[in-house]
Amino acid sequence: MATEEANEKLLKKFVAAEVGDGDEDEPLKDRIWSETKKMWIVALPAIFTRLSTFGIYVITQAFIGHIGSTELAAYSLVFTVLVRFAYGILLGMASALETLCGQANGAKQYHMLGVYLQRSWIVLTICSICLVPLFIFATPLLKALGQEDGIAEVAGEISPWLIPVLFSLVVSFSCQMFLQAQSKNMIIAYVAAFSAVVHLCLSWLLTGKYKFGVVGAMASAILAYWIPNIGQLMFVLCGGCRDTWKGFSSSAFKDLWPVIKLSLSSGAMLCLELWYNTVLVLLTGNMENAEVSIDALAICLNISGWEIMISFGFLAAASVRVSNELGRGSARSAKFSIMMVVLMSFTIGFVLCVLPLLQETCGLYFHGEQ
What we know:
The chain is mostly helical. It has helices spanning 2-19, 28-65, 69-106, 111-136, 138-144, 149-158, 163-180, 186-209, 213-240, 256-285, 290-328, 331-369.
């Protein structure tokens, strides 16, 4: 009887080790340190990449602001209303790829990552084609939403330039999710930083020195959004992911409906979070002196945007870590990963909340002394 119990315990221990729950025997301090390192391997490059990508928008906005207040208001309106609308849909739908690739990588089904990537390209491209009319008919759409005619007309001239940006998001989001699931996202951070530097220099040349105006700023923005995509595609297709990229496959056209369903459910969660800024800008456009109001709100949303990019980085880390552990068959490790991500996010959020309050309190204190 004792032998049977001993054998049963050994079997349970073996199964736990196979599915990844053997980590429960490690000291808590070691588990926390190990999980923190794994989380930051994904989170830090993801945060840096999203900050660099958001910086492209901010740089373009800054140079357009030197052209004129109407152009600045129109660009802010198009980007915040149309691009952010599309951004929320595509990023949310691409999050399905993050889940699928993370689980496949955790389960060591490496060949499936390349198939999932190709399926995501198909689904996101179809979705982007459906969104193109929003950018073509931006002027009548914005007028119907109550925006000033002058701003809506200029917005209609800017919006077609953002169609290439729309399709760049397809490649960008899908490759990011594909590489993050394998913890190979440092290449994304490098090319994003390089792209932001190129965009800054090119924007200065085209808008500041050679005075090409909005056309120069938008041409530089398109190039800046596509440079990281070219770098990521070259890395994936040219041997950077030998285990997970086996070339183009006809399997990508099979079983698309489950991917579409997961993409739609993932998209709904993120869209609502991003679209509330769109509503604010639309309401601001109905105010008197809309140019000044939209310009001021756009600057405020930029500050909020930097913070959101940090949150998206932690969102990527949470998704990758949890999906990897679930794919490995370790539910307890997945739960522990969630706890660590939430704790780290809360700590950073608390610090960022307390610092401005301390600054304001110290400022009032010293001002009172004077």
